[in-house]
Amino acid sequence: MGRGINMNDSIHSILKQYWGYDAFRPLQEDIIQSVLQGRDTLALMPTGGGKSICFQVPAMAKEGICIVISPLIALMKDQVENLRSRGIEAIAIFSGMNYREVDIALDNCIFGKIKFLYIAPERFYSDLVRERIKYMKVNLFAIDEAHCISQWGYDFRPSYLQLAELREAHPEVPILALTASATPRVIEDIQERLQFRQKNVFSKSFARPNLGYMALHEENKMNRMLRVVKKIGGSGVIYVRNRRETQEVARFLLNHGVPSDFYHAGLGLKDRESKQHAWTTNQIRVIVATNAFGMGIDKPDVRFVIHIDIPDSLEAYYQEAGRAGRDGKKAFPVLLYQQEDREKLWKNFQDSFPSVQFIQQAYHYLANHYQIAYGAGKNITVDFDVVEFAKKYKLQVVPTMSALKFLERDGWLTLSDAVFIPSRFKFEIDFQELYRFQVQTAKFDPLIKAILRTYGGVFDFYVPINEYEFAKKLSVSYETVVQMLEGLEKQQVGSYLKSTDKPQLTFLQPRVDYKNLFIDAEFIRERKDIKEEQIKAIYHFLDTKECRSNAILEYFGEIGNAHCGECDLCLKRMHVEGIEVKIEQEIRVLLLDKPQSLQELIDNITVGDDSQKLSVLRELVDDGKAVVTAEMYYWKAN
User: Fold this and answer.
1) Structure pTM?
2) What is the DSSP string of 183-218?
3) Which residue intervals define the domain Helicase C-terminal in the entry (predicted)?
C-alpha cells in the first residue's frame, strides 16, 4: 500500500477496508481523532485493548510514513507481517541486522512505498538511522510501551531516552505514546520526556469488573494450582520464574490429566509458534510460561492466569493477569505465594543493584570475551548469551544483567531482547553478471536458479531464506546449502547473513580501561529507591485486608469505590458476613427463649467458631440489642 489515503476518506472506511471491523472499540476513535488533529497524545489502554489500531488507522488516513518504536522485537515482526498480509507495506529495523540491510531498508522508507517503519529503540544510537529519518515524510511517531522512557516506570529502558530527538527531526509531527499501565507519576514523566507540546491523556479505567483477583498464601502450591485449574476449567496461562519450572509444572499437569505444554524464549521459533498455535486453538488447555509469553496474543477466552511466583511489580502483574477474561466473562487471576517467595523477591531486588566496581569488572570481562582491543570496538554487534558469559567468568546472572542495563544507561553499549532472525541473502551483482557467473561456475547454478524462482527483489533487498527448504528442493544436505551460500559470498556474488536467536549486544564506544569507565552511581541509587517502592507495592497488594481490585486501582491513581465482590478477600468477607448474620439470628432466638450464661450461649450456637460467636455477641451488646446482668445474657425487647 503505497499512497496515503486522502484525509477526506473516513477512518471508519479504513478500519473496514483493511481490518474488517465495523466499529472502533471504546477510546480508539477519540485517540485517532486527537492524533489526526496533530496533537501529542498519551493513550493508556489495557492489554488486549487494540492499541495498534490507534496509530495504524490515522497513519493510513494521511500521506507519509508512520514510525513505530517498540522494544518487543517479536511483536514488531508479527505486526509487520500482519500489515503486509493486509496489503500494507511495512518494514522493521532491529538489532542483528547489518549496516547494509539497515541502509537499504531506510532508503526504501525515503524513496519507496513503505507506510510503516518499526524500529527497536536501541537502533536510535545509530547516526545512520537518525540522519535518514530527517529525510522521511513522517506523518506520525508511535511510541509503544511508552512507560519504558520513565525512570519511575517498572520497565525503564535507557535506549528510550534517545527518543526525544524525534521531535528535533520533525518538530510538527505528532507523537502518540501508548502503554497498558502507568502510575500518575509515570504519566507525567512520559509527556515531559517526549516533550509534549500540551498535556493530553486518554485513559480507560484500570478496573476489570469481570476479574476475581486471588492472592493466596499456600504451602503446597502445586496441589492448589491443580485444584484451581480443575475447578475453574477452560483455557489458562501459568506464569513461572524460569525455564526449568515451565517444563516441571507442565509435566505435573500432564501427569494429572490436564492437557498442557511449556513455553519460554529459549525454544526455537517453530517450537514457539506450534505451542502458541496449539494453545490459541484450544488443542491444549494450559500453557506454562515465563513472562516471555503473551505479548500481542489476543486470546479472549482465557479463564485463569496463575502466578506461581510473585511478579517484580504491580504493573507487570496487572498486565499479565489482564490476559484473562478479555471476552468480558468471569475469569480469575490467581497468585500463589509462600513466605520464602517474598524473601526471594527481596534478595533478587538487592542483587539487581551491583556496585560500581562490579559493573566495571563486568565491562572488562565483556570486552575480553569478544577480544576487543583498547580503543577499538565501536559499533560492533555480537550475539550474546548472558548465561554462558556469566558461567565463563563465574558471575551471578541477576547482577550481570543489571550491570549491562547500567552500562546501557551510561551509553557504553545496548542490548536487545532475544529474538529469532532468519537467514538473509542478497545478490551483489546485476542479472547479466549473475548469468555469466552461472555459465562459468556450474556447481552454483541449481542454487542460484532456486533462489531466483523463490524470491523476488533479491537484487535490491536482503530476503529471508530457509536453508532447509533449499536442501529439500535440491536433494542435498543442509550443510551443503550453507557451504554454497558461503561460497557465493566469498566470490562476492552475494551477501549471506546466518540466522540467530540470541540477544544482540552492540558496543557503542571504543573500549576504555575499566578503571576509567564512568558509571552514574547517583542514578543507580535513585533506581534502587524506585524499585524498592515497587516491591513494597506488591507486598501491600498481598497483605491488604480490604479488596484486591481496589488495591490495584489505588496504585494506578484511581479511587476504588465499593469492594469488587469478586476477589478472595471480598468472597471471604461475604462468607464471614453470612455466618455473622446466622449467628445473630441464633442468639436472638436463644435469648428470647430464656436468658443464658456466656458458656451456654457459645455451646448452643450451631454456626461459626468461638471467636466469631464472641465478636457478634460483643457487637449486639454494644448496639444495645442484648444486655448482660449478673453474668446472664438477655435479649432486649423492643
Assistant:
1) 0.81
2) -HHHHHHHHHHTT-SS--EEE--S--TTB--EEEE-
3) 221-370
